[in-house]
Amino acid sequence: MELMPDDLAASDLDGVFNDSVFIGNSLTVHFYNYVCARRLKNPGFLGNAKFFCTYGYSAYNDLNGGDDKLPKYKGEALHTWQAVRAMKAKTVYIDLMGLTEIWKYPYSKSPEKTFESHAAMIERIRSENPGVRIVLLSSSYMVKSFNSKARALNNYLLSRFNAIALDWCNKNGCDFIDVSTPFLDGNAIRDEYCRDPGEKGQGCHIKNEYYSAWIGVLRNYAYQKRKSTWRNPTEMRIIPAE
User: Is residue 20 a contact partner of residue 47, using CB atoms and an 8 Å limit?
Assistant: First the structure.
């Protein structure tokens, strides 16, 4: 993977992300930290996009969890639909939270069950915020040592989940942005891209400097949206567990 310069500047394309919010789990928290660091020098970096995220967050927790499971906005624990309304967001980018939910369900149906939670969350966001745009970002994958058939969470299940999400987007007129495939080396994330590849880690968190790849993908999306040439990926490859 070719990294963008570490001093990546704001771009005119970043205006596409004005009046938006990025929702997600720890992957989004780390992305938020990356964006904040760049906004110190370039206040317009990724427009005025806001973030609503926390560690261990999932669509299931959003629907069923108490305040201790929810992210906070201005010091108050909120559900996604409440946060979108409070932020007056016009576009909601949901970083799919397969990593924090798939393992909860029986193996054979876990991708489907996980997306059911996401779909229910999205419908609640829409019902409480008429006219809001929903954009889904693919769930991240894991390093090779975590991609085992014996695990309740692996790249096979995550890729099935992403494929289900893409199909839903195509049927419901939503955009789907693939931020995870660029990190794959074969059937897994290369260890050098991951900040916790060891057995005591979680095998999925991206090193800070590699979030420049997310910016590249998002700006490509912004460029194509402005030109009205954006098309969702034709497919999300099903990755075998090893």
Answer: yes
